[in-house]
């Protein structure tokens, strides 16, 4: 009897061992199968042929220009090819599915509005003088991409008498550029630096004009009321005061300042008012 029980026990162990072996074999086969699939996918990915952008651009640049609705600009062949290169490179980088000629042309047609900044950048980088149609295109479609060329575009618009386009440039500067606290009375852009020079039209603005723009008279009266004796002495010695759009008027500081600081000289009448206030506060 004990021997039979022992034999039964052995069979159970043997059965468990077989099941374990089958399970392990099955898991290993699944892992190997998964590994094989991953390897196959990797091979497929790496085996995909890269696009020769230069070669494709030279062969389909005319179709690209048509797909982008740029035929009316009558661009020269070299510029058309450069535009095609940028567009093909950008589209093909979006997805590996955009690698065929037909796929790229289809995508270019669908994205022609969004590709405006890219196209405008290529035009501006390759042409010193724009024709009026090209000027209109880059201003209407260039967006932020044309900000580095704003001064030149303003000059060209001025020469052509295109005040409508200048208004668009001014709006772009206010929204996407780096508007400054003081507006230029000549070009209308908020682009006068602390050295009183306009970075758009290049004109130099006098201090009187700057004072008028910032409402200096009211600001100066306020400064005289709230400044302490030491601040009044400092301004009196400098015979000038600093305008910071964040803080208003204050004594000029040396070294690094926060934001933009315009140093404005005081005229005789302003110096006289300053000395009277200094005397009054010193005696009180």
User: How many β strands by DSSP?
Assistant: 3
Question: CA-to-CA gap between the ends?
Answer: 122 Å
Low-pLDDT runs of 5+ residues are 1-25, 43-47
Question: From the alpha-carbon coordinates, what is the Rg to the nearest angstrom?
Answer: 36 Å
Average the pLDDT over all residues and give the rounded result.
85
Mind explaining what this structure looks like?
It is a single chain. The protein is mostly helical. Among the domains are: 54-112; 119-176, no CATH class; 215-283, no CATH class. Helix content is 63%, strand content 4%. It contains 12 helices and 3 strands. Strands 2-1-3 form a 3-stranded antiparallel beta sheet. A hairpin with a 3-residue loop joins strand 1 (240-244) and strand 2 (248-250). Helix 2 (53-67) packs across helix 3 (77-94), helix 3 (77-94) packs antiparallel against helix 5 (116-126) and helix 7 runs antiparallel to helix 8. The longest helix has 46 residues, at 2-47. It is elongated and about 85 Å long. The chain starts with a helix and ends with a helix. 23% of the residues are buried. The model is unreliable at 1-25 and 43-47 (pLDDT under 50).
Please write out the topology.
Elements: H1 2-47, H2 53-67, H3 77-94, H4 101-110, H5 116-126, H6 132-141, H7 150-160, H8 163-176, H9 207-214, H10 216-226, H11 229-238, E1 240-244, E2 248-250, E3 262-265, H12 268-283
Antiparallel strand pairs: 1-2, 1-3
């Amino acid at each position: 009897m004990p021997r039979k029980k022992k034999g039964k026990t052995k069979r159970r162990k043997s059965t468990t061992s077989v099941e374990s072996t089958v399970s392990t074999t099955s898991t290993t086969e699944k892992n190997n199968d998964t590994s094989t699939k991953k390897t196959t996918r990797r091979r497929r990915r790496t085996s995909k042929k890269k696009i020769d952008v230069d070669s494709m651009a030279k062969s389909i640049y005319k179709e690209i220009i048509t797909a982008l609705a740029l035929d009316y600009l009558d661009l020269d062949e070299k510029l058309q090819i450069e535009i095609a290169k940028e567009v093909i490179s950008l589209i093909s980088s979006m997805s590996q599915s955009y690698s065929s000629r037909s796929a790229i042309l289809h995508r270019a047609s669908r994205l022609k509005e969004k590709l405006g900044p890219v196209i405008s950048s290529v035009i501006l980088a390759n042409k010193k003088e724009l024709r009026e149609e090209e000027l209109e295109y880059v201003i209407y479609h260039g967006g932020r991409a044309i900000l580095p060329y704003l001064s030149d575009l303003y000059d060209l618009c001025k020469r052509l008498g295109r005040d409508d386009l200048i208004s668009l440039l001014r709006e772009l500067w206010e929204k996407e550029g780096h508007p400054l606290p003081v507006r230029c009375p000549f070009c209308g852009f908020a682009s006068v630096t602390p050295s009183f020079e306009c970075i758009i039209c290049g004109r130099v603005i006098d201090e009187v004009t700057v004072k008028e723009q910032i409402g200096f008279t009211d600001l100066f009266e306020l400064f005289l009321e709230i400044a302490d004796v030491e601040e009044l002495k400092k301004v009196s010695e400098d015979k000038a005061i600093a305008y910071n759009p964040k803080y208003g008027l204050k004594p000029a500081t040396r070294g690094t300042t926060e934001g933009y600081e315009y140093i404005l000289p005081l005229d005789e009448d302003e110096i006289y008012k300053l000395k009277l206030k200094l005397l009054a506060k010193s005696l009180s």
